[in-house]
Amino acid sequence: MRAGLLNYPITIQEPVTVKDVYGANGINWKDVISTRAQVTYNTGNRQNQNNEIIHCYTVTFTIRLYHKVNEQMRIIWNGNKYRILSINRELYKQSITIVTELINE
């Protein structure tokens, strides 16, 4: 792991289930990890969903191995939210490679 390549601050959030006053379940997102990452753009395309043009990106984040990350979490970077698609722990590099996609909101 080359620490100098981890040059972008990111925040990793996990979902927390809450009940409102009527008993309905909702999801709030809680910040659990603030760290630095190497960011790489993989692919980008333009899609038409519900007569709306959406720009989709696949981005790879590389972080240190000691962080506890799972697929239910999401990543906040540059004001955008990214859904985790896959997590690859690379022991020989002492890093975790996370493949994500941009969440359309």
Automatic annotation (TrEMBL):
<protein>
    <submittedName>
        <fullName>Phage head closure protein</fullName>
    </submittedName>
</protein>
<dbReference type="InterPro" id="IPR008767">
    <property type="entry name" value="Phage_SPP1_head-tail_adaptor"/>
</dbReference>
<dbReference type="Pfam" id="PF05521">
    <property type="entry name" value="Phage_HCP"/>
</dbReference>
<dbReference type="InterPro" id="IPR038666">
    <property type="entry name" value="SSP1_head-tail_sf"/>
</dbReference>
